[in-house]
Structure formats: C-alpha cells, structure tokens
Amino acid sequence: MMGVHGNGLTSLVWMKPSPRSTVIEFFYPEGFAHDYEYTSRALGMVHYGFWNDKWVRFCLTSFSTDKFFLSFCRYFTSPDVPPVNYPKGFQGNEIPIDGAAVARLCLERLTLSEEADD
Questions:
Q1: pLDDT digit string, tens, across residues 5-29
Q2: What is the pTM of this model?
Q3: How far is CA 18 from the centre of its chain?
Q4: Could you tell me how many helices (H) and strands (E) the chain has, helices first?
Q5: Which residues make beta-bridge pairs with 74?
Q6: Backbone phi, then psi, for 55, in 5-degree steps?
Q7: pLDDT in tens, 60-99
Q8: In this structure, are residues 48 and 23 in contact, taking their beta carbons and an 8 Å threshold?
Q9: Which CA distances in Å does 101 have to 48, 73, 105, 108?
C-alpha cells in the first residue's frame, strides 16, 4: 500500500500481515509524523517513509541495510530519524516524489523470498 500521508492510509488496518506487507508513505519534504508508521509496526508490517528520494524504513526488530537501495537512494535511519514536523505545505497538493526510487522499492518488496525479511 502506498500514498501521501493522510487518512487514506488508515486502510492499512485491513491488510493481511505477511513478510511482503509494506506501507509506503509520502511526506512533504522536511515533514514527518509517526501515525501510520506506528500502526504498520503494531500490525507486523514494514513501513517506509519518503521525502522525494530519501526514505526511512521502520520494522519490528531493526533498520534496513538493504544494499540494493543504499546504492540508489539517500536514506536516514535511527538515530537520524526526522522529528515530527508539519511544515507549511505538509497538507498541500504538491508533494515531490522520486518515482524511480519508489519503483525500485516496490520491485524489491515484491521479489522478496517467502521467508521473513527481518
């Protein structure tokens, strides 16, 4: 499931958790909120937050070290997870996103083996 930060992502509560269950959330640059990250983790799913071409992955036990994405994307992980922030434009209609980075992440998640990835 993917979408811009907002109430539409609440539908993730009906997703069936599996090793491939993934929530990809798009944020306005420098904006961040934990709402759907917390929900995803509580339900046993992986969550990625995107700022254009930067992403952070949250999971149940550890942060990502996926070499595939480290070679293509700038990233931030703990302890450099951004603070909750609602800058001007956060709720706006113009949220830049790097489609190629999102497509690479989708390909990676869809081609996972059946085993748990964490």
A1: 988 899 999 999 887 888 999 999 8
A2: 0.75
A3: 16
A4: 3, 5
A5: 54
A6: -140, 155
A7: 333 344 443 333 344 455 556 677 889 898 888 888 988 8
A8: yes
A9: 12, 7, 6, 11
Measure the CA–CA gap between 1 and 45, rounded to whole angstroms: 11
Q: Give me the sheet containing 54-58, strands edge to edge.
A: 2-4, 22-26, 46-51, 54-58, 74-75
117 is written with which tokens?
């990835």
* 58 strand-pairing partners: 47
User: Are the C-beta atoms of residues 56 and 48 closer than 8 Å to each other?
Assistant: yes
Cα separation, 90 vs 63, in Å, equals 25
CA distances from 67 to 35, 56, 58, 71 (A): 27, 14, 16, 6
Give kind and range of the element (H or E) at residue 67.
helix 67-70
Using CA atoms, how far apart are residues 61 and 49, in angstroms rounded to an integer? Answer: 17
